[in-house]
């Protein structure tokens, strides 16, 4: 079981305005608990002992909040105050702080509820270093709560993923949770770039896989989605 996770928390949260006018998006609360705390609590419950959190927008507020948490995890800050590096560049910048290989990457703006098996342990059980550079947690489009897109990926019977074609619908949505090898970041672009670039490279090499989430998932990207998610969580 990998012991380290990278939590992506540096985004500007523009779609969540006005809630993010005075706080970073990871500190927006859903049913009395911040999105960041919910992600870190899931990691801790799965036995992950170290989390690297990147910060940019209202970074001081994020750091202060992390210091106020119980000291039951080794939480390290990857500072992007001077330049926002996007998802891929942010992970590359944080790699010196990440000891494990493979390691988890978790977006802080989604919320998941485990199914019969702990989601993060399920990813670890499915991981095959000989075949994979990335293992993405997917949710069927029909069960992607509060999500408004047309799906992201197809999966073949072995779990190997391919992209949705333009003008089509794909059956799976990426949840923002993945298990990756450091090999995925070999020879990266400089500066800011998206994880999509690295996934496409892994897809082309046949080394990007997916697994279907067995529980619930919520895309908490807007104030409306936040309210809907809170209602569903609170009232079942």
TrEMBL record:
Renumbered to this chain, the signal peptide range is none
**Its domain of life?**
Bacteria
Keyword Transferase annotated: yes
Q: What sequence ranges are listed for the domain Nucleotidyl transferase?
A: 5-163
Output the CDD domains linked to this UniProt entry: NTP_transferase_like_1 (cd06422)
Which GO molecular function terms does the record list? nucleotidyltransferase activity
Keywords (alphabetical) are: Nucleotidyltransferase, Transferase
Q: PANTHER family, alphabetically?
A: N-ACETYLMURAMATE ALPHA-1-PHOSPHATE URIDYLYLTRANSFERASE (PTHR43584:SF8), NUCLEOTIDYL TRANSFERASE (PTHR43584)
Q: What is this protein called?
A: Mannose-1-phosphate guanylyltransferase
Q: State the organism of origin.
A: Tardibacter chloracetimidivorans
Q: What is the lineage of its organism?
A: Bacteria, Pseudomonadati, Pseudomonadota, Alphaproteobacteria, Sphingomonadales
């Amino acid at each position: 079981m990998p012991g380290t996770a990278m939590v992506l928390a540096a985004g500007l949260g523009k779609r969540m305005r006005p809630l993010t006018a005075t706080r970073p998006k990871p500190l927006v609360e859903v049913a009395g608990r911040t999105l960041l705390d919910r992600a870190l609590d899931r990691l801790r419950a799965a036995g992950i002992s170290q989390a690297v959190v990147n910060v940019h927008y209202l970074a001081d507020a994020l750091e202060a909040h992390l210091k106020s948490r119980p000291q039951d995890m080794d939480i390290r800050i990857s500072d992007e105050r001077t330049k926002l590096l996007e998802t891929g560049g942010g992970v590359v910048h944080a790699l010196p702080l990440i000891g494990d290989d493979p390691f988890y990457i978790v977006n802080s703006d989604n919320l998941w509820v485990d199914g019969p098996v702990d989601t993060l342990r399920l990813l670890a059980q499915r991981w095959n270093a000989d075949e994979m550079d990335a293992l993405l947690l997917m949710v069927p489009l029909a069960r992607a709560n509060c999500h408004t897109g047309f799906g992201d990926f197809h999966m073949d019977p072995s779990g190997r993923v391919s992209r949705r074609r333009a003008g089509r619908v794909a059956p799976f949505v990426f949840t923002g949770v993945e298990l990756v090898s450091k090999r995925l970041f070999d020879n990266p672009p400089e500066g800011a770039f998206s994880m999509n670039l690295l996934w496409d490279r892994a897809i082309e090499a046949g080394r990007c896989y997916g697994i279907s989430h067995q529980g619930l998932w919520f895309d908490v990207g807007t104030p409306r989605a936040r309210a809907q998610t809170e209602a569903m969580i609170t009232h079942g």
